[in-house]
Amino acid sequence: MADHIQKELSEERMLDLCEGTILATVFLEPSTRTRLSFQFAMKKIGGSVIDFGPAEATSLAKGESFEDTLKMVDSYDPDVIAVRSKANGSAQLAADICESPVINAGDGSNEHPTQAMLDLYTIRQIRGKIDGVKIGLMGDLAHSRTTSSLSMALDKYNGVKIFYIAPEELQARRETLGSMRNATYQRLDDLQEVIEELDFLYVTRVQRERFNDPGDYERLKGSYVLDRASLLSHKKIPYILHPLPRVDELSPDVDALPAAKYFEQARNGVYVRAALLAQVVSDDPLV
Ligand code: CP
To answer: Which parts of 78-154 are beta strand (E)?
Structure first.
């Protein structure tokens, strides 16, 4: 359906899949791509958007609880609510409270399922299929909701091999690895060992906001830096993905390489989220 929407939007500026419906976006943690791509997606398929705005401009700043806040948003009867919060489990809590459907737009370090959907969509668009893909997930895997959700999504396909590339302190969480049923995986700390085997390298930033001790962040933030020269020293360069935002781990001089796909990946968020919104709000089982 995302393919269909992408094609239609290349021919027409607006579609009417969600005409007469309202998306409420409640983002209590910073976001550029997820918030804006949900909002652009809804507008492009004919719906409306009400944005909750920055938390400091709402009654959260007076001490109102997350639960009461979501109850109020839900009481205005949106067709769907997209929620981002820094607390793990907050999207599930919102879904338990609200009558309207809730989409998890990222809850702390826990999950980012719509990012995983657009990551899969991008891999399929580039490679034609997801089965059999060899992918390296590199960076701050311990705090990363994107690599956790992507791992679980990739595990639904056949013959997938995942290389978790990080120093021990930033390695993939035990619960992520424990949930893998189909995919094979390997943990390592040196990208050079596997880079020429990879179809894709998915880079993530070291997430300062998730560290309890700022000293640990300072010590670990430079663990990996991917730049053009190091990539060009290899016989085979994998496609480079990144959920963005980037900080220092991915040099801007990589952007001009044909293998750099992260801005296309972010753009695909509009089509994937539009498809998801249309399915969530539609009464038509064919949508
Ligand atoms: N990838 C992602 O979630 O980006 P934002 O934090 O900018 O939404």
So the answer is: 80-85, 102-107, 134-138
Which atom of ligand 1 approaches the CA of 244 most closely?
A: 1
In degrees to the nearest 10, what's the CA dihedral of 34, 39, 42, 43? -150
The vertex-66 CA angle with 109 and 20, nearest 5°, equals 95
Residue 285: predicted pLDDT: 56
pLDDT band at 253 (very low <50, low <70, confident <90, very high): very high
284 CA from centroid of ligand 1 (Å)? 30
Contacts of 62 (CB under 8 A, 6+ apart): none
Residues 104, 276: contact at Cβ < 8 Å?
Answer: no
In Å, how far are 61, 92, 149, 154, 163 from 67, measured between CA atoms?
14, 11, 25, 33, 39
In the predicted structure, residue 287 carries a pLDDT above the cut 80: no
> What values do phi and psi take at 73, rounded to 5?
-55, -45
